[in-house]
Design a protein that fits this description.
This protein is α+β, with helices and mostly antiparallel strands and 676 residues long. It contains 14 helices and 35 strands. 23% of the residues lie in helices and 27% in strands. The radius of gyration is 28 Å and the shape is globular.
Length: 676
């Protein structure tokens, strides 16, 4: 009896253990099926080509069975080919990601559950010189659109001409400012409208080939961009709409604004959408009240934020993100996540804001705390949080595609600087002779770049004198000026667009028989939001020495153009490394066997730009919060790689490559000398 009882007890324990093990296995299996392990792009690609969709939106997304109706904003919601459709979109700036990495980002967007991509088109990228249109190479918009189509996503295009986007001058070309009377974003400026029409006459036919009704991926076009925060000019908005119609953009049109600016930025008969990142209920209510007979569309839900130099790194907590997106989806609203893919302001393409009596330049990184980072990594919380929300609201269904793996990141180590090229030798390499004028003037007015003016970089103003001790600068300086006497730094200034500089400097240094006064001014990025008509860069005014006007002035354009970079790289003026008086160029060579993404740590340098194998990867500034520069794999090669640093103040003896970014390190040093 006791043995039988013991046997039953043992059997019961075994059975219980078995049930527990099976239960645990089923739970783990269900979790695995719900959130599959990360995978390669090939596995993600295979998933979609087996299943052909995610959830109940798939049959409308892919390039199959297309009718002629396209996307329609009906009273009960959006319809695609007559079927209910919810736009699940993400912003991806193709111009902030290396073209060889576009596919990686797009597949990650699709694996997240999105069905649409939203892009801006920056005018100043595609028409850097008037009449010279560039849509190939790094600027190949057609290739990007075709890749979106290949990944079987839809596309929303926001052609501008103004895009904001924390992009230089909001996407407008700086050569517009050669006209001293130029006004932008208005029907009252015929020269501006003429330039817009010429550009759109080239851009819009290209886009028309890829509309949904022409069997392409484009389902909607935005007219202008957040115009309600800038003005109220229906004639201008209608001018743009008419150009769209004339060039066959026969898809859905919409405008987008903040909730309080909807009436200023909208057009009668055109869908209005709203932009925000807080108080979603209020914003959606504002939109519904303004437009009760149309579906709710969030054209920009800001999933993070951008950074300025000298400010903290911005993030949106995953819980905050989840709560707000949940509310938006619960109201049956369509949504575009701005940004879904972070990127990089390569070269001099960053924009700026103005405020606090200074220019607030945007940093090189445009990571944005997005769901896919600047360097292509999946956000550790937000990405999966979004997939859960889309499941919750029945916008996707199981099984989910596997999450693509993040690409490898490598720490290459430290490398010594080998060579130096001093500032005077850099001046000798400039492709153009200096322009001599009686007074200093803005870079846009220089007769360089096929008489389109200087857009980016630095402008050097140089004059000579025999004697003097009191220097007075009277005029406008934008953005950051360094004053040198005989190569010795005297003062650094920083301005905003409203400040008229009137500053007297005393100097007691030893002088020569002939002395050189240099004013080196950096364009740190033209303002991209609101105030736009006075965004000329450099210094314009007069400079006095002991109450006498200095004249004439030599104007040197240090724009680091492709031609100048070629001359720098092949120059015979390079010398063995020595810490020269800055500004100066410094060169190192990095031998790489395993080529992957990496990050250049510039925290021991001060301020300048970096060229990697001749490509300008952007600005660094030890002021922070950004201390590293993202170096995409496609910019590197096996074997020897060339790193050139243009340092304005204090160099280091090494360059260091690490495996993760530093975007949140503010250095507690005195701020630059602002103009008061």
């Amino acid at each position: 009896m006791q043995l039988r009882t013991i046997f039953k007890m043992v059997t019961l324990k075994k059975l219980t253990s078995t049930v527990l093990v099976l239960t645990a296995f089923l739970v783990l299996w269900s979790i695995y099926k719900l959130y599959p392990a990360s995978s390669s792009h090939d596995e993600v690609y295979a998933f979609f080509h087996q299943k052909n969709c995610i959830g109940n939106v798939c049959e409308n997304v892919a390039a199959r069975d297309r009718g002629s109706e396209g996307l329609v904003a009906g009273n009960g919601g959006f319809f695609l080919n007559g079927k209910p459709f919810r736009i699940l979109s993400g912003s991806f700036h193709y111009f902030r990601t290396h073209p060889q990495q576009w596919s990686d980002r797009l597949w990650k967007m699709r694996a997240a559950g999105l069905n649409t991509v939203s892009i801006y088109v920056p005018w100043n990228l595609h028409e850097r010189i008037p009449g010279n249109y560039e849509f190939t190479g790094f600027f190949n918009l057609q290739n990007f659109i075709e890749l979106v189509h290949k990944v079987e996503l839809l596309l929303i295009v926001r052609p501008g001409p103004y895009i904001c986007a924390e992009w230089e001058f909001g996407g407008l070309p700086s050569w517009l400012l050669r006209d001293p009377y130029m006004s932008v974003r208005t029907s009252n400026s015929q020269p501006y409208l003429k330039h817009v029409k010429a550009y759109f006459d080239r851009l819009l036919p290209l886009l028309a080939k890829y509309t949904y009704k022409n069997l392409g991926p484009i389902v909607a076009f935005q007219i202008e961009n957040e115009f309600g925060s800038y003005g109220h000019d229906l004639k201008y908005m209608q001018f743009l709409k008419t150009l769209y119609e004339q060039h066959g953009l026969n898809e859905l049109y919409f405008t987008s604004d903040g909730g309080f600016q909807l009436s200023n930025g909208s057009i009668a008969g055109v869908l209005a959408a709203v932009n925000f990142n807080f108080n979603p209920l209020q914003s959606l209510t504002d939109l519904k009240n303004f437009q009760p007979d149309k579906p709710l569309m969030v054209a920009e839900f800001w999933s993070g934020w951008f950074d300025h130099w000298g400010e903290i790194h911005h993030r949106m907590h995953a819980n905050d993100f989840t709560q707000k997106v949940d509310i938006i989806l619960s109201k049956n609203a369509s949504i575009n996540f701005y940004m879904f893919v972070g990127g990089t302001n390569f070269g001099f393409w960053n924009g700026a804001n103005s405020g606090d009596h200074r220019n607030l330049a945007t940093i090189t990184s445009y990571d944005y705390d997005a769901l896919i980072s600047e360097h292509g990594d999946i956000h550790p919380q937000k990405y999966e949080a979004l997939r859960k929300l889309l499941l919750k609201h029945h916008l996707i269904s199981l099984p989910l595609p596997p999450v693509p793996r993040n690409s490898p990141k490598v720490a290459l180590g430290k490398f010594s600087i080998k060579e130096t090229l001093n500032f005077e030798d850099l001046i000798r390499l400039l492709p153009n002779q200096p322009i001599v004028l009686e007074k200093p003037t803005f870079m846009e007015y220089l007769g360089v770049n096929e008489s389109s003016g200087q857009s980016f970089g630095w402008i050097l103003y140089r004059s000579t004198f025999k004697f003097g001790r009191s220097l007075r600068l009277l005029g406008t300086l934008q953005d950051r000026g360094q004053i040198f006497v005989n190569g010795k730094l005297l003062k650094i200034f920083h301005s905003n667009e409203k400040t008229v500089l009137d500053k007297v400097l005393q100097f007691n240094m030893s002088l020569k028989e002939k002395n050189v006064l240099d004013v080196l001014v950096e364009n740190m990025g033209r303002v991209n939001y609101q105030t736009l008509n006075n965004e000329r860069r450099g210094f314009q005014g007069k400079i006095e020495l002991d109450d006498k006007i200095l004249s004439p002035w030599q104007h040197y354009s240090l724009d680091f153009s492709d031609n100048l970079i070629i001359e720098i790289r092949k120059s015979v003026f390079w010398q063995s490394f020595d810490i020269k008086p800055t500004p100066a160029l410094y060169r190192s060579y990095v031998t790489i066997n395993n080529v992957e993404d990496t990050f250049l740590d510039m925290s021991l340098w001060t301020k300048g730009i970096v060229l990697v194998n001749g490509f300008n990867v952007g600005r660094y500034w030890s002021f922070g919060p950004q201390q590293t520069l993202y170096i995409p794999k496609p910019l590197l090669k096996q074997g020897r790689n060339e790193i050139i640093v243009f340092e304005l103040e204090k160099p280091s003896e090494k360059v260091s490559f690490i495996s993760s970014p530093i975007l949140d390190s503010l250095v507690k040093t005195p701020a630059p000398t602002w103009i008061l």
